[in-house]
Amino acid sequence: MFKPFGTGARACIGRQFALHEAVLVLGLLLRRYELRPDPGYRLRVAERLTLMPEGLRVWLERRG
């Protein structure tokens, strides 16, 4: 299983900072841009660890 920040005694000390940065960037993107899915997309589900839409393309449009 992939663990991007490691675990145990050798876990990344910057984990919490990196996660906060990711949330901030996501918030800025969602505030500044509208996410638009491909209008012709037909849902296909990929069963992995969780269910994921397969082949979904999303465009960002700058908000007015």
TrEMBL record:
Family to which the UniProt record says this protein belongs: Belongs to the cytochrome P450 family.
Organism from which the protein derives: Streptomyces haneummycinicus
Sequence positions that bind heme: C12
Keyword Oxidoreductase: yes
Keywords, in A-Z order: Heme, Iron, Metal-binding, Monooxygenase, Oxidoreductase
Metal-binding in keyword set: yes
Name listed for the protein in its UniProt record: Cytochrome P450
MF terms (GO), sorted A to Z: heme binding; iron ion binding; monooxygenase activity; oxidoreductase activity, acting on paired donors, with incorporation or reduction of molecular oxygen
Needed co-factor(s): heme
SUPFAM superfamilies: Cytochrome P450
